[in-house]
Every structure is written in structure tokens, then in C-alpha cells.
Amino acid sequence: MNKFINLISGKGNIGHGKIFLRDVIRGLTGSQKRLSSKYFYDSNGSKIFEKITI
Predict the structure, then answer these.
(1) Where are the domains of the chain?
(2) Ramachandran region of residue 29, left (φ > 0), alpha (ψ -120 to 50) or beta?
């Protein structure tokens, strides 16, 4: 259970897969659901998406 808490809180040394998992859990368990555009587009596409939607 401590590893899960550390994953959600962002504490400790976590790898890329765990960062993705943490972001998905945080994004989908909040009251307003969200996932970062970086998971859908390359870096240029993500920047464009952020400019258009924010």
C-alpha cells in the first residue's frame, strides 16, 4: 500500500510507466476528469493542443 501512496503523491523515485499510471489515476479519479495531451500527441502537437484548448 505504501508504494501506491508514494505513486499518487509523487514521492520517491518512479519510472516513466509509473508516471503515466500516476497521471492517469490522478486525472480520472478527480472530480473533473482529465488526461494530459502529451499522452495523445507528440511534443509539437501537444503544445498546439494546449494553446487551442487553454
Answers:
(1) 2-53
(2) alpha
Helix axes 16-29, 2-9, angle to 10 degrees: 80
State whether the Cα torsion 23-28-29-30 is positive or negative: positive
pLDDT digit string (tens) for 26-52? 999 989 999 888 888 888 988 888 888
- Specify the pTM: 0.56
* Per-residue b or e along 8-29, where b marks 16 or more CB atoms closer than 10 Å to that residue's CB: eeeeeeeeeeeeeebbeebeee
- In this prediction, residue 1 carries a pLDDT of 45
Integer Cα distance of 49 and 44 in angstroms: 9
